[in-house]
Amino acid sequence: MGAGHAHTLYRAGSSPVHTLPPHCKIAAVFCFVLVVVATPREALWAFGLYAVLLAVVAATARIPAGFLLKRLLIEIPFVAFAVLMPFVAEGARVEVLGLSLSQSGLWGAWNILAKGTLGVAASVILASTTELRALLLGLQRLRMPPLLVQIASFMIRYGDVITDEMRRMRIARRSRGFEARGVRQWGVLAKSAGALFIRSYERGERVHLAMLSRGYTGTMPVIDEATASRAQWTYAAALPLTALAVCLTGWMLT
Amino acid sequence: MHVPDGFIDAPVSVATGAVAAAAVAVSLRGARRELDEQAAPLAGLVAAFIFAVQMLNFPVAAGTSGHLLGGALAAILVGPYTGVLCVSVVLLMQGVLFADGGLTALGVNITDMAVVTTVVAYGVFRAILKIAPNRRRTVTVASFAAALLSVPAAAIAFTGIYALGGTADVAIGKVFTAMVGVHVLIGIGEAAITALTVGAVMAVRPDLVHGARDVAARRLELRTGAPVRTPAPASPDGSAVSGGSAAPAGAARPAGSAAPATARTVTAAPATKDDADTAPAAPRRSARRVWAVGLGAALLCAGVVSFYASASPDGLEKVAADKGIDQKTEDHAAKDSPLADYGVKDISDARLSGGLAGVIGVGATLAVGTGVFVVVRRRRAETDAEAR
Amino acid sequence: MTSAPPSLQVSGLAYAYPDGHQALFGVELTVARGERVALLGPNGAGKTTLVLHLNGILEAGAGSVTVAGLPVAKANLAEIRRRVGIVFQDPDDQLFMPTVREDVAFGPAAAGMRGAELAERVHRALDRVGMAEFADRPPHHLSFGQRRRVAVATVLAMEPEILVLDEPSSNLDPASRRELADILRSLDVTVLMVTHDLPYALELCPRSVVLSGGVIAADGGTQNLLCDQELMREHRLELPFGFDPRSVTAPV
């Protein structure tokens, strides 16, 4: 989430996964995750198959395993939560290595771990094979309201600028001997936040002026048209459809 | 508390998705009203601001730190509709780009963190402004209360969603009672920073605080007849044209951030008129009030409303940890964890444990709140002394 | 001067901000087609406010603005904004699109231009500021000087009648400053340049006006104006140390 995020998330490439139109990819990932979430947790093997599916996609996109694993770290807080669950949950208890654990808690932990991890992995693959801009275009093609797309694109464009201003303010604070150590520094931090807001807001006004000056009337002119062929849709649909087959089998077997 | 995939089951995820979509649709229309045609760039910049502010960690005590959620802040500064949009966009981007929060849980996350926080915060904020004298200090107090309540409100919403579609088999009572203490603390942090931030904006650009905008129209004055001097030889007489009272202040308008001069131009509302000489003193008094109100509200939250405990961002994991330790001590009577007493009582009576959690919440709140208050005051005194 | 209507005619322009603060008190200014004029004045004189009137972003409280004969009014705002190209001081405000190409295309595309014609227009504008090979880069990856040049291109792409530059030389290193001057000289459009950089004004603009206290306080040849020490003092205008406007042969 740090500054310069725009450049570290995306891994440039020309694999078949990279070249798919963005809206196909977003739809595919979303459907895939939905299918995963809907899978009964008792179908252990199904989750194994999902993982294999994702591994195949990652391999096709030539994303190194290390990169993928590192990005999975974002999940850690919830891993902690999942690990604790067997201790907290209700219901029948089982003895594992001398600890009394809740059976349903164990299932719950497994459920969150498996589904959460698959979800994160799928999103990571999407973000690392699709440029920021393309993602936004994709969302637009998927009928996300244009205003929302515009807000998101302004946020992306100016995220760095604002973060940079925040960094400069921190340097200015520190070079005058300020170090945030505890609650007594809240006032100063809040003043910085206030100043940052004013700067952001005023920049928003100036950007709007600049847009008006070039004939902006409330809608963004569409310059790039991304369209997807039937073949590309089919290609992208392979992932969620396979997953769906696995899921349905899972439901029938359990 | 970015909920990942699989935490909430599929039907409830879809349902909350629909709720979130509806809320965003309503906000889209509302935001156009709030911001006119400037909606896109301004909301985008505010979203970038919220995104940045979430990275601004404020230290709570030795070793731990928290960060703003920004829902209340956004609602107060730019209005509820734009606030919902901004936080939603931030959550969407975090989900799609950083895999922070699951894609299928996006509905849950938006409903919980974007919609509930902003709506509750704005409601509380407006309600207080309505009943209290309309002053600048009231704005600060109202921001504090709004932010303070918005966090537990999000928690209640989360607990509700969890009750409907939680995949983990943990008793509802347990989930939220355990969260009380932790989340009231989080609420206090959020409230303090939000109130101080709104106060800082109020001091410089009060017109930017939504709902505290005021328009004072004045008649135009023409300064014609002053000689326009033309080129070459210097004819010394033009000194009559020295720009009157307005000229120097004019610089502040586009650049904006020039503090004291602008502060008095626009004030919250009719009754305001904080004179220039009271302005420097105001923060201290307002801080005292803020803390008094804050502690009162905290008591209310944790004590009376202890049943509607709070499940809120980032405290979720903390609660899980506490709960886990707690249960462990119960089962094995092991180690003397700081929460040992609390755990012993928590056998299977959710109500009893609820009450206890509430009491602990109040206690902790009072202690920390008072501590913060004292420290801030002492700090103020110090800085006042240092600064000439 | 030709018989064509002046590129810019401002008369009796007064304006107060919504908060009641009045910034302009009856501005009179005429700029003929093809002229390059510097707009000088101390901080807070109302320069930015004046600029925002030229394309109708601010609506005149009193008085009028016409651009090449067309009055600035709600009805013809789109055409006015095509004719008046404003380059803002901070290129980050102006370059809001994800790539340089899209940013330069924004104006013409908003006016309805599409396809090959649009691509050609974009290429020509970028070529005029020497930034053609940066078309696919995101603006925030460029240097400050490059961003300023792209900002000029975004406006040139609309083929404006008059180019308005707000502090074009601010924050530029000397080389970028000179490159920008070369570009501006090579353009055959009317230029109104708001600046504190007096040598830059002397280098580029034969004529200058001084805006002070919300009115035009002086109007004349740049060199004469800069040599008038009393006028300069009175309006808080100062030349850089060691710079003598008399020692320079100013372009006429």
From TrEMBL, chain A:
It is a multi-pass membrane protein. One of its GO terms (cellular component) is ATP-binding cassette (ABC) transporter complex. Keywords: Cell membrane, Membrane, Transmembrane, Transmembrane helix. The chain crosses the membrane at residues 20-38, 44-65. GO terms for biological process: cobalt ion transport. It is found in: Cell membrane. InterPro entries: ABC/ECF_trnsptr_transmembrane, ECF_CbiQ, ECF_transporter_component. It comes from the Bacteria. Its main location: membrane. This is Cobalt ABC transporter, permease CbiQ.
TrEMBL record, chain B:
Gene3D superfamilies: 1.10.1760.20. It is found in: Cell membrane. Signal peptide: none annotated. GO terms for biological process: transition metal ion transport. Residues 288-378 form the PDGLE domain. Keywords: Cell membrane, Membrane, Transmembrane, Transmembrane helix, Transport. The chain crosses the membrane at residues 7-28, 40-60, 72-93, 105-129, 141-164, 176-204, 290-309, 355-376. Its main location: membrane. Residues 231-271 have a biased composition (Low complexity). Residues 226-284 are annotated as: Disordered. It is a multi-pass membrane protein. GO terms for cellular component: plasma membrane. This is Putative membrane protein. It comes from Streptomyces himastatinicus ATCC 53653.
